[in-house]
Design goal:
The protein has 158 residues and is mainly alpha-helical. The chain contains seven helices and no strands. Helix 1 packs across helix 3 and helix 2 packs across helix 3. The longest helix has 15 residues. The chain is rod-shaped and about 95 Å long. The relative contact order is 0.05.
Protein backbone atom coordinates (compact mmCIF):
# COMPACT_ATOMS: atom_id res chain seq x y z
CA UNK A 1 0.00 0.00 0.00
CA UNK A 2 1.47 3.37 -0.95
CA UNK A 3 2.28 5.86 1.77
CA UNK A 4 -0.32 8.61 2.27
CA UNK A 5 0.36 12.04 0.88
CA UNK A 6 1.56 14.64 3.40
CA UNK A 7 -1.12 16.91 4.85
CA UNK A 8 0.70 20.01 3.57
CA UNK A 9 0.54 18.72 -0.01
CA UNK A 10 -3.17 18.00 0.32
CA UNK A 11 -3.87 21.49 1.63
CA UNK A 12 -1.79 23.11 -1.14
CA UNK A 13 -3.49 21.12 -3.90
CA UNK A 14 -6.97 21.90 -2.52
CA UNK A 15 -6.09 25.61 -2.25
CA UNK A 16 -4.86 25.67 -5.86
CA UNK A 17 -7.93 23.75 -7.06
CA UNK A 18 -10.32 26.13 -5.29
CA UNK A 19 -8.61 29.23 -6.65
CA UNK A 20 -8.12 27.98 -10.22
CA UNK A 21 -8.67 30.24 -13.19
CA UNK A 22 -11.40 29.78 -15.75
CA UNK A 23 -10.62 27.05 -18.25
CA UNK A 24 -8.35 25.09 -15.89
CA UNK A 25 -9.83 21.70 -15.06
CA UNK A 26 -9.32 19.59 -11.96
CA UNK A 27 -7.79 16.91 -14.19
CA UNK A 28 -5.03 19.36 -15.25
CA UNK A 29 -4.30 20.37 -11.65
CA UNK A 30 -4.19 16.71 -10.57
CA UNK A 31 -1.81 15.91 -13.43
CA UNK A 32 0.46 18.86 -12.52
CA UNK A 33 0.75 17.61 -8.92
CA UNK A 34 1.13 13.96 -9.96
CA UNK A 35 -2.04 12.66 -8.31
CA UNK A 36 -5.15 11.00 -9.69
CA UNK A 37 -8.14 13.20 -10.50
CA UNK A 38 -10.45 11.20 -8.20
CA UNK A 39 -7.97 11.68 -5.34
CA UNK A 40 -8.25 15.43 -5.84
CA UNK A 41 -12.06 15.20 -5.82
CA UNK A 42 -11.92 13.30 -2.53
CA UNK A 43 -9.54 15.83 -0.97
CA UNK A 44 -11.79 18.73 -1.98
CA UNK A 45 -14.85 16.95 -0.60
CA UNK A 46 -13.07 16.25 2.70
CA UNK A 47 -11.87 19.87 2.90
CA UNK A 48 -15.48 21.02 2.43
CA UNK A 49 -16.56 18.74 5.29
CA UNK A 50 -13.71 19.97 7.52
CA UNK A 51 -14.65 23.60 6.76
CA UNK A 52 -18.30 22.94 7.62
CA UNK A 53 -19.57 23.61 4.09
CA UNK A 54 -20.80 20.05 3.68
CA UNK A 55 -22.24 17.52 6.16
CA UNK A 56 -20.06 14.57 7.05
CA UNK A 57 -17.39 13.28 9.38
CA UNK A 58 -14.41 15.54 9.95
CA UNK A 59 -10.84 14.32 10.14
CA UNK A 60 -8.95 14.22 13.38
CA UNK A 61 -9.52 12.70 16.79
CA UNK A 62 -12.98 12.87 18.34
CA UNK A 63 -13.42 15.97 20.52
CA UNK A 64 -14.18 14.06 23.73
CA UNK A 65 -13.34 10.35 23.75
CA UNK A 66 -15.64 8.27 25.94
CA UNK A 67 -14.56 7.71 29.53
CA UNK A 68 -12.43 4.60 29.78
CA UNK A 69 -11.89 4.33 26.03
CA UNK A 70 -8.86 2.19 25.31
CA UNK A 71 -8.51 1.09 28.93
CA UNK A 72 -8.95 -2.49 29.94
CA UNK A 73 -8.64 -3.23 33.58
CA UNK A 74 -10.34 -5.49 36.05
CA UNK A 75 -14.06 -5.11 36.51
CA UNK A 76 -15.19 -3.19 39.58
CA UNK A 77 -15.39 -5.48 42.59
CA UNK A 78 -18.81 -6.97 43.25
CA UNK A 79 -20.23 -6.28 39.79
CA UNK A 80 -20.34 -8.16 36.54
CA UNK A 81 -17.90 -7.09 33.82
CA UNK A 82 -19.15 -4.76 31.12
CA UNK A 83 -20.31 -6.31 27.84
CA UNK A 84 -17.41 -6.95 25.51
CA UNK A 85 -14.96 -7.22 28.39
CA UNK A 86 -13.29 -10.48 29.27
CA UNK A 87 -15.36 -12.15 31.98
CA UNK A 88 -12.84 -14.88 32.64
CA UNK A 89 -13.55 -17.98 34.58
CA UNK A 90 -15.34 -16.14 37.38
CA UNK A 91 -18.79 -16.53 35.82
CA UNK A 92 -18.51 -20.19 34.85
CA UNK A 93 -19.46 -21.47 38.34
CA UNK A 94 -22.51 -19.22 38.17
CA UNK A 95 -23.51 -20.82 34.88
CA UNK A 96 -23.15 -24.26 36.47
CA UNK A 97 -25.40 -23.21 39.35
CA UNK A 98 -28.00 -21.86 36.94
CA UNK A 99 -27.89 -25.13 34.99
CA UNK A 100 -28.38 -27.06 38.24
CA UNK A 101 -31.46 -24.90 38.88
CA UNK A 102 -32.90 -25.94 35.52
CA UNK A 103 -31.92 -23.01 33.30
CA UNK A 104 -30.47 -24.22 29.97
CA UNK A 105 -26.76 -23.66 29.39
CA UNK A 106 -27.36 -21.84 26.11
CA UNK A 107 -29.70 -19.34 27.76
CA UNK A 108 -27.35 -18.71 30.68
CA UNK A 109 -24.36 -18.17 28.41
CA UNK A 110 -26.29 -15.89 26.07
CA UNK A 111 -27.59 -13.70 28.91
CA UNK A 112 -24.11 -13.44 30.48
CA UNK A 113 -22.59 -12.85 27.01
CA UNK A 114 -20.21 -15.80 27.26
CA UNK A 115 -19.15 -18.30 24.61
CA UNK A 116 -20.07 -21.94 24.86
CA UNK A 117 -16.78 -23.51 23.89
CA UNK A 118 -14.64 -21.92 26.63
CA UNK A 119 -17.31 -22.77 29.22
CA UNK A 120 -17.35 -26.44 28.25
CA UNK A 121 -13.54 -26.48 28.11
CA UNK A 122 -13.41 -25.02 31.65
CA UNK A 123 -15.97 -27.52 32.86
CA UNK A 124 -14.01 -30.43 31.41
CA UNK A 125 -10.66 -29.21 32.78
CA UNK A 126 -11.93 -28.54 36.29
CA UNK A 127 -14.15 -31.59 36.49
CA UNK A 128 -16.82 -29.25 37.81
CA UNK A 129 -19.67 -31.43 36.52
CA UNK A 130 -18.34 -34.46 38.46
CA UNK A 131 -17.89 -32.84 41.87
CA UNK A 132 -19.90 -33.68 44.96
CA UNK A 133 -21.42 -36.78 43.41
CA UNK A 134 -23.26 -34.76 40.79
CA UNK A 135 -23.33 -35.97 37.25
CA UNK A 136 -24.30 -34.10 34.16
CA UNK A 137 -27.56 -32.16 34.46
CA UNK A 138 -30.51 -34.53 34.03
CA UNK A 139 -28.35 -37.62 34.44
CA UNK A 140 -29.77 -40.28 36.72
CA UNK A 141 -27.56 -42.01 39.33
CA UNK A 142 -27.89 -45.33 37.50
CA UNK A 143 -26.35 -43.80 34.37
CA UNK A 144 -23.34 -42.60 36.34
CA UNK A 145 -22.83 -46.06 37.76
CA UNK A 146 -22.76 -47.55 34.27
CA UNK A 147 -20.45 -45.08 32.59
CA UNK A 148 -22.44 -42.06 31.60
CA UNK A 149 -25.53 -41.09 29.71
CA UNK A 150 -24.51 -42.80 26.45
CA UNK A 151 -24.46 -46.24 28.00
CA UNK A 152 -27.87 -47.73 28.65
CA UNK A 153 -28.33 -49.34 32.04
CA UNK A 154 -29.50 -52.96 32.21
CA UNK A 155 -33.19 -53.54 31.84
CA UNK A 156 -33.63 -54.38 35.53
CA UNK A 157 -32.45 -50.88 36.53
CA UNK A 158 -35.01 -49.00 34.44
Amino acid sequence: MPAPYPQELREDVVRVARSREDGVTLAQIAKDFGIHEMTLHKWIRQADIDDGNRPGRTRGPPPNPPVGAGERGPAPRGRLPLPGKLAGKRLYPLVSELVADGIPVAVSLRVLELSRQPYYRWRKQTGHHQRAGRGLPGQRPVHRAYGGSRVRPPAFCR
